[in-house]
Amino acid sequence: MSKLKHEQEMRERRNQDREHWRDSRHNDNSAPSSRFDELPDDFDLSGKFPGSFDDGDPQTTNLYVGNLSPQVDENFLLRTFGRFGPIASVKIMWPRTEEERRRQRNCGFVAFMNRSDAQAAKDEMQVSVPECNN
């Protein structure tokens, strides 16, 4: 019960911070504000942030798949990555703007049912660019 109460308090604190940030943004016309203005003093600006090659979460089963041809669909990703093991979900981030369509490349996510299958797929497919030949 105390864990639930703690989560509720944290959520309420985040909502209050968000409202305060919105209010201060609308009331201060002197300079455009940014979320980067609120970075903590101990924030690491060296550029060594966790990113696409970060292995920080040893339990993750979700893989990012980038540089996809517009002809690649969810079924193609399911067939391509399904040989590594059971897949929980596949999602392609379809372009929503004309600028995104002009790039002629999409990205997506493949979520495996277990970590070892995701790791095997990542290791083998890291440099491969799947092409769809419909």
Question: What descriptive keywords fit this protein?
Answer:
134 residues; alpha+beta; three-stranded antiparallel beta sheet; 4 helices; 38% helix; Nucleotide-bd_a/b_plait_sf; RNA binding; SR-CTD_assoc_factor; RRM domain-containing protein
Describe this structure in words.
- Residues 1-28 have a biased composition (Basic and acidic residues).
- It holds the Pfam family RRM_1.
- This is RRM domain-containing protein.
- GO terms for molecular function: RNA binding.
- The chain is built from four helices and three strands; from the N terminus they run H-E-H-E-H-E-H.
- The longest helix has 26 residues, at 2-27.
- It has 134 residues and is an alpha+beta fold.
- Among the domains are: 2-28; 62-125, Alpha-Beta Plaits.
- A three-stranded antiparallel sheet has the order 1-3-2.
- The N and C termini lie far apart (54 Å).
- The protein has helices spanning 2-27, 74-82, 98-102, 115-125; strands at residues 62-68, 87-93, 106-112.
- The relative contact order is 0.15.
- Helix content is 38%, strand content 16%.
Q: How are helices and strands ordered from N to C?
A: HEHEHEH
Rg from Cα: 20 Å
Strand content: 15-25%
The CATH topology of one domain corresponds to: Alpha-Beta Plaits
What is the straight-line distance between the termini?
A: 54 Å
Computed structural class: alpha+beta
Number of β-strand runs: 3
- Characterize the biggest β-sheet: 3 strands, antiparallel
